[in-house]
Amino acid sequence: MTKKIKLLLSVFLVIVMTSCYYDNAEDLYPVIPDCDTTNVTFGNDIMPIINTNCTGCHSGSAPSANIRLSNYSEIVASANNGGLMGSIKHESGWSPMPKNGNKLGDCTIKKLDTWIAEGTPNN
After folding, report:
1. 70: how many CB neighbours lie within 10 A of its CB?
2. Buried b / exposed e across 32-50, counting CB within 10 Å, b at 16+?
3. Domain range summary for the chain, segments of one domain joined by +
4. Helices (H) and strands (E) in the chain — how many of each?
5. CA-to-CA distance for 12 and 30, rounded, in angstroms?
6. Which of 55, 51, 52, 80 is nearest to 67 (CA)?
7. What distance in Å separates the CA atoms of residue 33 and residue 92, rounded to the nearest whole number?
8. Whole-prediction pTM value?
9. Each residue's pLDDT tens digit, 92-116
10. DSSP labels for 95-120?
């Protein structure tokens, strides 16, 4: 009988010891940084977003859909008519952009929204 008790106790201890662990909560659940939109500028934020995601198709002598986004005035015109954000947010009535690509990230969209809400400054 004592062999059975020792065996059961051993099994119990193995189960208990393997079920406990001490992982760091910060490693298990990393904090995703907030999207900083406190100082969005055209030069540092907006133009790089447009260059990375838009100018491949919307620049040059024959831009897609005849929409050119090569410089400040062209980007502002698209922002002012609603086409820039309508397309980027994949809103109904607008062609979703980037074409055949994934929707831009929430932070990227927030930065564009912030810049437009602040009056599309050329800063």
Report:
1. 16
2. eeeeebeebebeebbbebb
3. 42-117
4. 6, 0
5. 33
6. 55
7. 30
8. 0.72
9. 999 999 998 899 999 999 999 999 9
10. --SSTTSPPPPHHHHHHHHHHHHTT-
